[in-house]
Design goal:
Oligomer: single chain
Structural class: alpha+beta
Largest sheet: 6 strands, antiparallel
Order of helices and strands: HHHHEEEHEEEHEEHEEEHHEHHEEHEHE
Helix content: 40-55%
Strand content: 15-25%
Length: about 500
């Protein structure tokens, strides 16, 4: 049975495509009506007002898109139970951490993966302990910056000590233990080669010079192999370079070797770089004059094709991102992030029209013994099978959440406490009767379940807390049972 009442939407795809199609259509008709009368100055204005900003925006969007998945991977590492348990257990088995980081690196095709422990100051990679970080070491400044920041993560560009100082884009993610105490930083690194390939592709397509600079104006990344000179050595550009860097973006013009150049600059806060897109105006105008009328004739067709392709592509990536953001990878149940969104909607609906809401907090009995006796792979299969058994008993409106390691939270809208207790008993019996692992017929698991009903005055967390107390009573009484929570104080 479904475990999510409606689908979580990160973006409204239809509205976005409708807006995109509308903007492209408006641009098409405006160009068709006035294109023939466009003068040399209008073409030049188009380069300044549309082409260069669009190229810069496309590159910026591609870079952001390439960083979404690595950020999600780093987030998963930071919240991984194994990593936190390993640290809290005293960091004893270095090989286990090395295998974990190596698997992350290989599985996700990252350039590097790492974890730095706050307690031991060890810098772990897929090869073991690389070094110990120190506040007196300039190359470790990033770690102490991450430790102090308020955000969950940062994206930074640094040489990678573990890979011969190769220039690398790092996603540094803060890690906290189960009591929300800071215990270190983890994440992955990405090679900048993909950005270089992107620059070369855009330079070939748009016939423009594209490069990145740091805050001093030094060129740090470009598509061509030949290194561009320091921008302060270009007479036409050097005079206004300080102004450009101070303003952080905009459109500029300068003369270089007799040709007029148009420059669009954007500041990328994620990388702390400036994106320069440079166009030789005289070269651009010659090509535009030859292709203007052909582009007008095919613009409507291109608009339709681009809109359709964007619709298909956006739908594909939206579905993947929504699934990654809202579901637990192992069990397929909702994760806590999705629960937070859904419970807010459910409580808002309750305020408008009160209906009972019950919470069931289920815990697999003696799960540690399963892991110790049969191994973590069997333990994972047990989690999957128990999740499936729970999900199969729920109604369309109910939803199930992977609450913790072996804990599951079930939310039953429109269900009173007595009805919820009956549901809980059915769930308990279904799990007890299931065979979680075909290879181990003797393996059986049971669950303990605490039940509470939202009283309308408390918060959802308080109602869940009462269910947790009831669950504790079941465990104290021998497990494999159901208990009702006491009324809220």
């Amino acid at each position: 049975m479904p475990t999510m009442p409606g689908k979580l939407r990160l973006i409204d795809r239809r509205s976005l495509i409708l807006l995109l199609g509308l903007l492209l259509s408006v641009g098409f008709f405006a160009t068709t009506l006035f294109g023939y009368f466009v003068s040399r100055e209008a073409i030049r204005s188009a380069i300044i007002g549309q082409d260069l900003p669009l190229t810069a925006s496309n590159i910026y969007s591609e870079i952001q898109k390439d960083l979404v998945r690595p950020v999600l991977i780093s987030s998963t590492m930071a919240h991984d139970t194994f990593l936190r348990d390993w640290v809290l257990g005293g960091e004893r088995d270095v090989r286990a951490m090395a295998r974990y980081l190596q698997e992350v690196k290989v599985r996700h095709k990252a350039f590097s993966s790492f974890f730095v422990s706050e307690k031991s100051t060890n810098y772990y990679t897929g090869d073991g302990i690389l070094k110990q970080v120190s506040p007196s070491e300039p190359r470790d400044v990033w770690y102490y910056r991450v430790r102090k920041m308020s955000e969950d993560y940062e994206i930074n560009v640094d040489p990678d000590l573990a890979n011969r100082d190769a220039l690398t884009i790092f996603i540094n993610y803060r890690v906290f233990d189960f009591d929300n105490r800071y215990i270190g930083a983890t994440g992955i690194g990405l090679t900048v080669d993909s950005v270089r390939r992107l620059i070369r592709e855009y330079q070939a397509r748009f016939k423009r010079t594209i490069y990145f600079t740091d805050a001093s104006g030094r060129v740090v990344l470009q598509g061509d192999q030949a290194q561009l000179p320091n921008l302060r050595q270009r007479p036409g550009l050097a005079a206004q370079l300080d102004t450009i860097l101070k303003q952080g973006g905009g459109m500029y013009q300068f003369v270089d070797e007799g040709d007029n150049h148009i420059l669009n600059v954007n500041y990328l806060p994620e990388l702390q770089w400036y994106l320069f897109v440079e166009q030789n105006e005289d070269v651009a105008l010659a090509g535009v004059r030859q292709t203007l009328y052909i582009n007008l004739a095919i613009s409507l067709l291109v608009t339709l094709i681009v809109t359709w392709l964007c619709y298909i592509t956006l739908g594909h990536y939206q579905s993947r991102i929504e699934k990654m953001a809202s579901t637990d990878k192992l069990t397929g149940l909702l994760n806590r992030h999705a629960f937070g969104i859904l419970i807010d909607k459910l409580i808002a609906s309750y305020r408008r029209s009160p209906r009972p809401i019950s919470f069931l907090l289920a815990d697999i009995d003696h799960f540690k013994a399963v892991n110790d006796g049969y191994g973590h792979r069997v333990g994972d299969r047990v989690l999957v099978q128990v999740a499936a058994a729970l999900r199969a008993q729920l109604r369309e409106a109910d939803f199930a959440v992977r609450w913790g390691g072996e804990e599951f939270l079930l939310v039953l809208p429109g269900c009173t406490a007595d009805e919820a207790r009956s549901v809980a008993e059915k769930l308990r019996q279904a799990v007890a009767a299931s065979i979680p692992c075909a290879e181990w017929q003797e393996l059986r698991v049971t669950v303990s379940i605490g039940v509470s009903e939202f009283d309308g005055e408390e918060t959802p967390d308080q109602a869940i807390g009462r269910a947790d107390n009831a669950l504790y009573k079941v465990k104290q009484g021998g497990r494999n049972g159901v208990a009702m929570a006491a009324a809220s104080a």
